[in-house]
Known about the structure:
The chain is α+β, with helices and mostly antiparallel strands. It has helices spanning about 25-40, 50-65, 70-80, 90-100; strands at about 1-10, 15-20, 70, 105-110, 115-120.
Amino acid sequence: MVKIKIEDVLPSGERISITLEGREVNKRRIMQILDLLKIMGSPPSFKEEKLGETIWRIIVENYGDGSWFTSRELLLSLERELGINVKLNTVATYLLRFYRRGLLERDKVSGYGIKYRLKAFSTTLT
Length: 126
């Protein structure tokens, strides 16, 4: 059984300690925790998140386990969780951009269009 402990001190002085323990501890999970610590350690940002960043965050949060999803399923997640009203073709455009940047895998499904999934270890949008 693998056990990894990550500790950090935020600029505000708060101490964070996270322990991952189990047989299936992988690099992706560790990177997600490091991303979380990076977010928590950065100063508050008063600018709004860009749409592409929001879509990427929802992909990582909802489909970061490697499960397949369609553009329509992602659209429903955006509407349900964030109340964002976006057109389906806008979501499809961002998915194509992420795919071309090597962040997503895609597979054609007969009769249903295209399904996507997060490539292994692609939790950060660069």
